[in-house]
Amino acid sequence: MKFNQWTLGLAAVGVISYASAVQAEESAVPLMTALSATTISGYVDTSAQWNFGTGTGGRVNSFSAGKSDGFNLNVVQVSLGKAMEATDEWAAGYQVDLWMGPDANALGTDSTGVNTGDFALRQAYVALRAPVGNGLDFKVGVFDTIVGYESLESGKNPNYTRSYGFTIEPTTHTGVLMSYRFTDCISMSAGIANTANARINQRANPPKAESYKTYMGSVALTAPESWGFLAGSTLYAGVVNGFDSGNATGGVGNETSWYVGSTFNTPIDSLKLGVAWDLLDYHSNSSNPTPGMGDAWAASVYASLQATEKLSLHVRGELGTLPHASAGGSDNIQAWALTGTMQYDLWKNVISRLEVRWDMADEGEYFAGGTEKNAVMLAGQFIYKF
Fold first, then answer.
1. Alpha-carbon separation of residue 318 from 289, 322, 324 (angstroms)
2. pLDDT at residue 150 tops 90
3. Rounded to an integer, what distance in angstroms lies between the CA atom of residue 39 and that of residue 25?
4. What is the pLDDT of residues 103-124, one digit of tens each?
C-alpha cells in the first residue's frame, strides 16, 4: 500500500503513529481549475456512541460533546491543495482544509469568537521552499500545531476518542512555520504565531503589547537502517509558548505546552508501540491568580497490532488531569483511562471501528455531571475517505 508524503511526514515527526498510517490509503483527485495540479480530497466522519448508565452524558473533551447515547455526524472535511514539486528549488503550493459539522464548532478557529454555524476553517496556508541546503520549507497562514501524538483527523489516530493529552494541547495557529531536514535522521521546525490558541487572526493585544507573539519549536529524530528492527522509529519533542485568551481571566494568559513522544517498531513487524507525555504550564499572575489554573499533564502509552490485512487492534492506556469545578473555581483532578479499538477495513476507502473506553477518576465523582466516579463507553465509527 502506498501512502501520501503528508501521512508519512506526520508519522516521521511523531504527530501520528505508523500504525495509523496503515489504516487507510488517502486519495487525491485532480480538480479542474486554472491550476491543473490542484487536487481535492477529504472524508466523512460518522459515529454511534453509548454511555452505560443513566444520565451519563459527561464528556472527556470538546469533540465528544453532545454525542452520548445516539448516532452522530462528527465532521466532513473537504481539502483543496497543491503539493510542492520535489525537484523545484523554488517550489510553492498551498493547502486548505474546510470542516463542516458539529466538530467544526469545537475547533475554535473562528475569527469572530462565535462557535456556531457548523463550519470552520481548519487549515489554510501557502507552502514555500527556498533553496537553502537541503531545502528550507515554510507554511504561511493557518496550520496545525506542531505538538501532540494524535492528529485533529480522527482517521489518522489509532483510536476513535481522543486522549487526555490531546485535550490540553493547542490545535492550530496563525503565523509562519519553518521546517528543515538536516539528514534522513534529524529534522527541526520553528515558528511564530499570533497566539497559542486557535482563533484565526486573533492578537495578544490587549492585554499584551502589540509586539507580543507565540513561539514554537520541535525536533524529530528517526532511527537509521543500521538500528535493526528499531529502524524508522521516531523520537519527537516540541514546545509552544505564548498567549491564550482562554486562560486570561484573572491571570496573565500566558502558557507553555511541552510535548515528548515516540513511536517505535518491535521485533514483531506487525506490532508498533508508542508513548506520549504532555504538560500544559499556566503562567498565573501571583497577585491575582486564576482560580484552579494549575499545571495540567497527561501520559499515554499506545500499542497497535496489524493482525491481518484488514484487521488491526489498538490499545491506549493513560493517566492525566481533567478540569473539575470546585468552590474555588476550576480545579484539576487525576483520572485514568483505558481504550480498546478494533478496526476492520471491510469496505474500500472506509475506516470502520468498534471501541470500548473506561475512565476512572481518582478523587470524587467527576463523570455524568459529577455523579459518577467511573464512565464506560461503547462506540462505533465509520469514515469514508475520498
1. 29, 12, 18
2. yes
3. 15
4. 999 998 987 766 668 999 999 9
Total of domains in the chain: 1
User: Any idea how long the chain is?
Assistant: 386
Average pLDDT, the chain: 86
At 15, list the grid cell.
504527530
The secondary structure element, H or E, covering residue 35 is none
Please report, for residues 213, 259, 334, 340, 356, the alpha-carbon distance to residue 337 in angstroms, rounded to integers and kept in the order given.
35, 19, 10, 10, 11
> Helix, strand, coil: what percent of the chain each, to 5?
10, 50, 40
H-assigned helices in the chain: 5-12, 18-21, 102-107, 164-167, 367-370
pTM score, two decimals? 0.85
Query: Which CATH number belongs to the domain containing residue 144 in this structure?
Result: 2.40.160.10
Backbone angles phi, psi at 373, to 5 degrees: -85, -25
In 269-373, beta strands by DSSP E = 271-283, 296-306, 311-326, 329-344, 350-361
What spatial distance separates the first Cα and last Cα of the chain, rounded to whole Å?
Answer: 16
Q: Which three cell numbers stand for residue 316?
A: 491506549
pLDDT tens, position by position, 316-361: 999 998 766 443 445 678 999 999 999 999 999 999 999 999 999 8
Report the distance separating Cα 113 and Cα 198, nearest Å. 11
* pLDDT tens by residue, 264-316: 999 999 999 999 999 999 875 544 444 445 689 999 999 999 999 999 999 99
Three state DSSP letters for 13-29: CCCCCHHHHCCCCCCCE
Alpha helices in 112-226 (DSSP H): 164-167
Residues 6+ apart with CB under 8 A from 201: 111, 174, 194
Q: How far apart are CA 121 and CA 81, in angstroms?
A: 14
Report d(CA 211, CA 214) in Å as an integer: 10
Nearest to residue 83, comparing CAs of 120, 130, 36, 44?
36
| CA atoms of 336 and 329, how far apart (whole Å) | 23
Which structural domain, as residue segments, surrounds residue 149? 5-385
User: For residues 13 and 200, which has the higher predicted lDDT (pLDDT)?
Assistant: 200
